[in-house]
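Morning, I've got a small favour to ask if you have a moment. I've dropped the whole record in just underneath, so have a look.
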Amino acid sequence: MLRLVVLAGLVAGCRVSLESVDAGGDSTGRACVVSTTSAPCMAATMQNPVTLTWIQQNIFTVSCNFSGCHSSASDAGKLDLKTSAHDHLVGISSMIDRTRMLVVPNDVHASYLMLMVRDVPPAMATPPAAAPPGSVGYMPQGSTTLCCQKLDALERWINSGAPNN
């Protein structure tokens, strides 16, 4: 019983949807789903502070470079998330929209990465943005949206200054 109470408290802090009227889990790519069965998603709620090492192991490795999409600088968007992700993300211009930085420390809404993973809707970006081109799409490409807990972990890391830890 105590486990359920703790779980409910952790999940309550996570967003269910980016759209105020959306129940989550739809096919529009606009909502994340709170996972109560995925161990990595549940572990994301326990990360305090969230480290880049944890993000690398539990988000980038399994969702971004597992298929070779972002495993070297010659891959998709010339974005290597396999090693030294900090050097390839923080303060770096997006290859998709050169006017935007992939990660802006302390500013989730200005971080293009968060738009690309469906955490920040384009209209809420700072400044407002267009959706990614159809030829690129949202990430992870061809896969389901990251669970809310992992998106929240990314947010916490960025809001803590996006340290190289």
Notes: The longest helix spans residues 52-64. Helices lie at 2-12, 39-44, 52-64, 85-89, 112-116, 148-159. The chain has six helices and no strands. Residues 34-159 form one domain.
